[in-house]
Design brief:
The chain is of the alpha/beta class. Helices cover about 25% and strands about 20% of the residues. It has four helices and seven strands; from the N terminus they run E-E-E-H-E-H-E-H-E-E-H. Strands 1-2-4-3-5-6-7 form a seven-stranded mixed sheet, with helices on both faces.
């Protein structure tokens, strides 16, 4: 029996979590949410659900580095809203709390370069992931980022993601806490 998860801001301008939790759940981390909801999937969510089921997961969950809804990453805030980042991490920790059988799929693509603050947002996730399995879709992009689900085919393998090497290469520091 899957548990529906849909956590948004009161005015629906931010989405913190979207998914259906199972006994074995694939948790994806993207850059920012679009307009998808439980009743209306977008292409990214459809692809995530496909990857999850094809790889033996009965549940999926979509989280994002920055929770502002925008169909185009160019529409993201120019300056980080730190309060929004803190609420995002708090909401995510509540959803993940006491749940063990999660695998994490990092899949923000080169979009993480759209705003300088997105790497700070990533830093806020690092303690959430400690001791967890972190995966990526196939090889990294030419710029060294984990690929976005829409940029790969379903036969792309899930591979181990080297968090330490990524953080070191891309200068991820500056927790927002």
């Amino acid at each position: 029996d899957l548990e529906d998860i849909y956590v948004t801001s009161e005015d629906n301008t931010s989405r913190f979590a979207l998914g259906k939790l199972g006994t074995r759940t694939l948790v994806a981390i993207g850059v920012n949410p679009s307009t998808a909801s439980l009743g209306k999937f977008d292409n990214t969510i459809r692809k995530l659900v496909g990857f999850a089921s094809r790889n033996g997961y009965d549940g999926w969950l979509m989280l994002n580095l920055y929770p502002q809804r925008s169909t185009n990453p160019n529409g993201l805030h120019q300056v980080v809203n730190e309060e929004l980042v803190l609420v995002n991490i708090q909401q995510i920790k509540e959803v993940l709390q006491e749940r063990k059988d999660f695998s994490y799929l990092v899949c923000w693509g080169n979009l993480i370069e759209k705003r300088a603050y997105l790497k700070q947002c990533l830093a806020s996730f690092l303690d959430v992931w400690q001791g967890k399995t972190i995966l990526q879709l196939g090889e990294l992009t030419k710029r060294g980022h984990p690929k976005h689900p829409l940029m790969v085919s379903y036969d792309t393998p899930l591979m181990a993601f080297d968090v330490e090497a990524y953080v070191k290469k891309h200068g991820v520091d500056g927790y927002i806490s």
